[in-house]
User: Which sequence fits this backbone?
């Protein structure tokens, strides 16, 4: 949902560049419109692909961070349990 504007922005920037180039080159209006339509469709598809790739990469990043956080919590819990066991053994030896 966060990336829903990426395809539209990519498409509009490509359309703007195409319009400027068509005016500078002095191409006929009908040819310019055909080229513009093709450019808009192609770059909309490219923007959709880019948005999906970015979304997947961020999703994988979040999953990796969660896994790392859980691993650290498990290590801390294991260290705490070992310390408690060592303290209990130390008390048993002293008695």
Assistant:
């Amino acid at each position: 949902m966060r990336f829903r504007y990426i395809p539209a922005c990519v498409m509009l920037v490509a359309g703007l560049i195409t319009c400027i180039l068509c005016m500078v080159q002095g191409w006929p209006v009908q040819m310019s419109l055909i080229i513009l339509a093709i450019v808009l469709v192609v770059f909309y598809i490219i923007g959709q692909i880019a948005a999906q790739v970015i979304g997947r990469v961020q999703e994988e990043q979040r999953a990796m961070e969660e896994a790392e956080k859980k691993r650290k919590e498990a290590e801390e819990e294991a260290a705490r349990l070992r310390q408690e066991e060592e303290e209990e053994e130390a008390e048993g030896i002293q008695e």
